[in-house]
Design goal:
The protein is an alpha+beta fold. Helix content is 25%, strand content 36%. The chain is built from 4 helices and 8 strands; from the N terminus they run ββααβββαβαββ. It has an 8-stranded mixed β-sheet with strand order 1-2-3-4-5-6-8-7, sandwiched between helices. The longest helix has 15 residues. The structure holds coenzyme A (COA). Coenzyme A binds next to strand 5, helix 3 and helix 4. The site of coenzyme A has 19 residues, from strand 5, helix 3 and helix 4.
Length: 165
């Protein structure tokens, strides 16, 4: 992805997370999620063979983290467990680019759907997923530790349901 502003151009790319990224990721996580994952939680994702933990970093230094995504590729589906974009980089298409990447990986593995849970109150995220073709298929009552309900949303990857993004 290329961002332009103030006469400058900055390029950003997705790559797998490593141990060295965990401090940066945890710092962002603590600012953006009501019930943030701890550093150990992220660390455990690095060792799971079915987990994809990807970061959006700047090509110039490879150190600045704009966002990250964690997805599990299990059986016939990809489950998105975490996606977040750091506040200064919101609204620039980073989340969409990260989800598109996981969906592409899932299509290449011939999986049948992508699924996720999202807080009922999280309108930006719900809007994001709906803009990519995800649909609400279930309400999961009191899913979160504060008692909030979740929407369970899925994106079908069946050949009869063409992807529209
Ligand atoms: C949800 C989140 C990941 C979106 O990241 P982002 O990079 O700003 O999103 P994008 O720029 O890729 O936006 C893509 C689409 O999402 C929707 N969207 C994103 N932010 C929105 C907002 N604040 N209000 C309404 N819609 C929004 C829009 O449809 C947007 O498309 P558009 O720009 O063409 O209108 C980000 O707000 C975030 O990190 N939130 C905190 C963590 C979180 O809630 N994660 C999801 C948990 S399930």
């Amino acid at each position: 992805m290329v961002l332009r502003g103030f006469g400058m151009e900055q390029k950003w790319s997705l790559r797998p997370a490593t141990e060295e990224d965990l401090e940066n990721v945890s710092r962002i996580e603590a600012k953006v999620h009501p019930a943030p994952w701890g550093i150990q939680h992220f660390r455990s994702e690095l060792t799971k063979p079915y987990s994809q933990f990807l970061l959006m970093t700047d090509d110039a230094t490879d150190q600045e983290v704009a966002g990250y995504i964690v997805g599990w590729f299990l059986f016939d589906e990809c489950q998105i467990l975490n996606v977040a974009v750091s506040l200064p980089f919101r609204g620039l298409g980073f989340a969409k680019a990260m989800i598109r990447k996981l969906v592409t990986l899932a299509v290449n593995k011939n999986l049948r759907k992508v699924s996720l849970e999202v807080r009922k109150s999280n309108l930006p995220a719900i809007q994001l997923y709906q803009s990519m073709g995800f649909v609400i298929v279930q309400i999961r009552k009191s899913f979160y530790s504060n008692g909030e309900d979740a929407y369970f949303m899925t994106l079908s990857l069946e050949p009869s349901d063409p992807i529209r993004f």
